[in-house]
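Issue 218. Parser rejects a valid record. Input:
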Amino acid sequence: MLLVLVSSCLLGEPVRYNGGAKKCEDEVLQRWFCERRIVPVCPELAGGMPVPRPPAEIANGGSGMEVLDGTAKVMDETGCDVSANFVTGAEKIVESAISMGIRLAVMKEGSPSCGTGYTYDGTFTGVKVPNFGVTAAKLRQACIYVFSETQFAEADSLLNQLEMGALT
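Output the parser choked on:
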């Protein structure tokens, strides 16, 4: 049975910057939980950040891949560069995923770590940009499929294909 990485906040864990969660009630997630497939992860905590913490965004509309290659920074609302925390967290999550043979992840959309379809532009004004977060980018670099919390059906379909050996 294949395991699946899932952002801890989607499981109701109070790990978000403001000490909150974004609990998801999707039926696929509930089934995976009952099947004991879920490996909860929070890249920010893995990178040594506290809860609560100032909100952070990738500066200048940059992408997670640009943070990984050093051409963009993750800045918190106070102006502090927290890029190292985000990169360290991403590296730890990916290393762990690889060691467990994990092939897919469902991450929290919009997060500077976990965003899969968008993150925010670094102005703290709610402007979205179509980029991956740092951990989502690192997971993709490692050939791990990444989905958002709005894509559980697609993730479940892919998981079934992986388990049947239809994909390598």
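Fixed in the parser; the record now loads. The first strand starts at residue 4 and ends at 7.
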